[in-house]
């Protein structure tokens, strides 16, 4: 629509941001820093590419759908209530965000997955802490969400380093970030502890992000070799799955 209306990049970003912050971040390829800005009219609230498409070619995103149901409280209404009532949010804006943004930018530029994962998960956890600090409290994660969080935390512990990062927005679905060499390990954990459908493993194997002829066979063969302390198996955790590269730019069709 922006191209049809002959809008420049900044104008398209500004219009997109009125509907969704996520959409304004998605208008550029690569890794994007959405800057808050300080101007009252929002004119300096803009997006900047910090690393181009292909900068971190081994990084993958795996979105795990735990529920397609509508939320009791929408993201916009929830954010408004948090802004009005959460003291933790005020502390976060002043004391936490600037330091974490700086560290996250450096982690992306240096392709440091350990730091990237640590900050990403901490950000997700604090978002939902703010939801609980809101009056009345907001609960977006369901029991499936919490099970996935526990599985990923236990998997990182068993490996001895961060091999996967989870993040939840204002909803129950889980987005995982992982590098190519951790895909097999993560799918094996999901198969054993979340009863991941083998058809969804096939979906990963045939995605544009991977070409993995015997992925299902390898995952099934490895499930007995993985043990996560303190985690029980749960059925019907994941309804669907999306798997992709990270950083591809949008295309005009």
TrEMBL record:
GO terms for molecular function: ATP binding; diphosphomevalonate decarboxylase activity. InterPro entries: GHMP_kinase_C_sf (IPR036554), Mev_decarb (IPR005935), MVD-like_N (IPR053859), Mvd1_C (IPR041431), Ribsml_uS5_D2-typ_fold_subgr (IPR014721). GO terms for cellular component: cytosol. Gene3D superfamilies: 3.30.230.10, GHMP kinase, C-terminal domain (3.30.70.890). It catalyses: (R)-5-diphosphomevalonate + ATP = isopentenyl diphosphate + ADP + phosphate + CO2. GO terms for biological process: isopentenyl diphosphate biosynthetic process, mevalonate pathway; sterol biosynthetic process. The keyword ATP-binding applies. Pfam families: MDD_C, MVD-like_N. SUPFAM superfamilies: GHMP Kinase, C-terminal domain (SSF55060). Residues 62-253 form the Mvd1 C-terminal domain. Keywords: ATP-binding, Lipid biosynthesis, Lipid metabolism, Lyase, Nucleotide-binding, Steroid biosynthesis, Steroid metabolism, Sterol biosynthesis, Sterol metabolism. Residues 6-45 form the Diphosphomevalonate decarboxylase-like N-terminal domain. The keyword Nucleotide-binding applies. Catalyzes the ATP dependent decarboxylation of (R)-5-diphosphomevalonate to form isopentenyl diphosphate (IPP). Functions in the mevalonate (MVA) pathway leading to isopentenyl diphosphate (IPP), a key precursor for the biosynthesis of isoprenoids and sterol synthesis. This is Diphosphomevalonate decarboxylase.
């Amino acid at each position: 629509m922006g191209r049809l209306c002959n809008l420049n990049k900044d104008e398209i970003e500004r219009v997109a941001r009125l509907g969704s912050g996520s959409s304004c971040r998605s208008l550029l390829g690569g890794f994007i820093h959405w800057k808050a800005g300080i101007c009252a009219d929002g004119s300096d609230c803009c997006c900047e590419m910090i690393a181009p498409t292909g900068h971190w070619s081994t990084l993958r995103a795996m979105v795990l759908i735990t529920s397609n149901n509508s939320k009791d409280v929408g993201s916009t209404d929830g954010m408004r209530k948090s802004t009005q009532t959460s003291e933790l949010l005020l502390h976060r804006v002043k004391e936490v965000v600037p330091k974490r943004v700086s560290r996250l930018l450096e982690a992306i530029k240096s392709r440091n997955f350990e730091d990237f994962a640590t900050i990403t998960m901490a950000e997700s956890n604090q978002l939902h802490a703010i939801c609980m600090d809101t009056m009345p409290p907001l609960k977006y994660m369901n029991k499936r969400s919490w099970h996935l969080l526990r599985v990923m935390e236990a998997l990182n512990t068993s490996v001895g380093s961060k091999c996967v990062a989870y993040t939840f927005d204002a909803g129950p679905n889980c987005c995982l970030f992982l590098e190519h060499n951790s895909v097999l390990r993560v799918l094996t954990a999901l198969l054993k502890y979340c009863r991941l459908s083998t058809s969804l493993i096939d979906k990963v194997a045939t995605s544009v992000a991977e070409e993995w002829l015997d992925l299902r066979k390898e995952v099934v063969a490895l499930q007995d070799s993985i043990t996560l302390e303190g985690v029980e198996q749960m059925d019907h955790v994941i309804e669907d799955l999306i798997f992709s590269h990270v950083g591809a730019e949008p295309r005009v069709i």
